[in-house]
Write a structure and sequence with these properties.
Helices cover about 40% and strands about 20% of the residues. By secondary structure, the chain is an alpha+beta fold. The protein has two domains: about 65-190, 60s Ribosomal Protein L30, Chain: A (2-Layer Sandwich); about 195-320, OmpA-like domain (60s Ribosomal Protein L30, Chain: A, 2-Layer Sandwich), CATH 3.30.1330. α5 (about 190-210) packs across α6. The longest helix has 22 residues, at about 5-25. It starts with a helix and ends with a strand. The relative contact order is 0.10.
C-alpha cells in the first residue's frame, strides 16, 4: 500500500491541474472553440434580456436603375441610369442620360418583337411628399410622366399600364430621388380575359358619363383644386382613354346666370380651357381633349339662390 501512495497523488494532482486550466482559460467557452468567439461576435446580435443569439441579415439596397425581366424572369435590359425626379414633383429631370435612352430603345425593340407583352410602369413616392398632381398619388403621376416620355420615343401608349406605390425607404439626395420608377412585363389579355377586360371598360365608360368629374369655381375664378375623389376620377378617365384612344375627353364649362349671357359663355369657355391646360400639365394628351362652354344654358341648380349659383359655376369632364 505504501508503494501506491505517491503515484495516486501524482495522478490526482494532474487531473486537478487539467480542470483548473480549462476553467481559467476558456470560462464559459467550454462548449465550443474559444478562439472562434471574437470572430462570431460581429455577425450576432445578443438579446440582453434572454441572452439568445439572433443572426441579422443585411438589408438589400433598392436598385435605382432600369431593370426589366420577361415573364420567364430572364433579364431583358439593365442600366445603372433611370429617370430621376425632384422631391414633391412628378416631372422627370432632363436631360435623360444616353445610357437610359439606349435602354428604353432596347425595351421598345423587345416589345415590338413580342406583341403579346405589355409594360407595367410603377412610380414610387414617400408619405412625406406633397401630391400636387391630378392623380390619385404622386407615384402614379410619375409613372404617367414616364409613360408619356416613352410614347414620345415611339412606344405604343395602349400597351403600357401605370401604377403608384408608397415606398418610405426611399431617400432623396439633394432633394432628388434617383430612379423612383420600376418596370415589369405582363401578358396582354386574350380570349375570355380580353372579353372581361372590354366589358369592364364598357362599364367604366358608363360610370364616367353618369357621374362626370365636376369642378366648381368661385365667381370670376379659374383656380383648379382637386379632392381625393376627384383625383381618382382623373385617374379613371386617363386609364380609359389610354385603353381606348379613339374616345375623347369632353371638357365643358358652365356659369350661373348673373350678368350678360355672352360674357358668361365666354367665361365658361375660358374655364374649360384652363381645365384643359391643367389636364395637359398633368400628362393627359391634348389630342384626346375637346373643350366647349355653355354659359348659363345648362344649369343643374336654382340660380335664385347663392348655393344654386355656386353649383352652376362648374366644368364637367366626361367621355364623349
Amino acid at each position: 500500500m505504501k508503494k501506491l501512495k505517491y503515484p495516486v497523488g501524482i495522478i490526482i494532482t494532474i487531473i486537478i491541474g487539467i480542470l483548473l486550466t480549462i476553467w481559467l482559460c476558456c470560462g464559459t467557452c467550454y462548449s465550443g472553440n474559444c478562439n472562434d468567439q471574437e470572430k462570431t461576435d460581429s455577425a450576432i446580435t445578443v438579446d440582453s434580456d434572454t441572452t439568445s443569439q439572433i443572426k441579422t441579415a443585411p438589408q438589400k439596397e433598392r436598385f435605382n436603375g432600369i431593370e426589366l425581366f420577361n415573364n420567364n424572369q430572364e433579364l431583358i435590359e439593365r442600366s445603372n441610369d433611370n429617370l430621376d425626379f425632384n422631391s414633391n414633383d412628378y416631372h422627370h429631370i432632363i436631360p435623360v442620360s444616353d445610357n437610359a435612352t439606349n435602354s428604353f430603345k432596347n425595351i421598345k425593340n423587345y416589345l415590338e418583337d413580342n406583341p403579346d407583352t405589355k409594360l407595367n410602369i410603377t412610380g414610387l413616392y414617400t408619405s412625406t411628399e406633397t401630391n400636387s398632381s391630378a392623380f390619385t398619388n404622386l407615384g402614379e403621376a410619375r409613372a404617367n410622366d414616364v409613360k408619356n416620355y416613352l410614347t414620345s420615343l415611339g412606344y405604343d401608349n395602349s400597351r403600357m399600364d401605370i401604377y403608384g406605390s408608397l415606398n418610405d425607404e426611399m431617400t432623396a439626395s439633394d432633394s432628388i430621388f434617383k430612379g423612383p420608377i420600376t418596370y415589369t412585363t405582363a401578358l396582354i389579355a386574350k380570349g375570355d380575359a380580353a372579353l372581361i377586360e372590354n366589358q369592364k371598360l364598357d362599364e367604366l365608360k358608363v360610370q364616367i358619363k353618369a357621374n362626370p368629374l365636376i369642378l366648381h369655381f368661385q365667381t370670376g375664378s379659374n383656380t383648379v383644386k382637386l379632392t381625393a375623389t376627384q383625383r381618382k376620377k382623373v385617374s379613371e378617365i386617363n386609364y380609359y382613354t389610354n385603353k381606348r384612344p379613339e374616345d375623347r375627353i369632353l371638357v365643358i364649362g358652365h356659369s350661373d346666370n348673373v350678368g350678360n349671357r355672352n360674357s358668361n359663355i365666354a367665361l365658361s369657355k375660358k374655364r374649360a380651357i384652363e381645365v384643359e391646360k391643367y389636364l395637359i400639365e398633368n400628362g393627359l394628351s391634348k389630342s384626346k381633349i375637346e373643350t366647349g362652354g355653355k354659359g348659363p344654358d345648362a344649369p343643374i341648380a336654382n340660380n335664385k339662390t347663392a348655393e344654386g349659383r355656386a353649383e352652376n359655376r362648374r366644368v364637367e369632364i366626361t367621355i364623349k
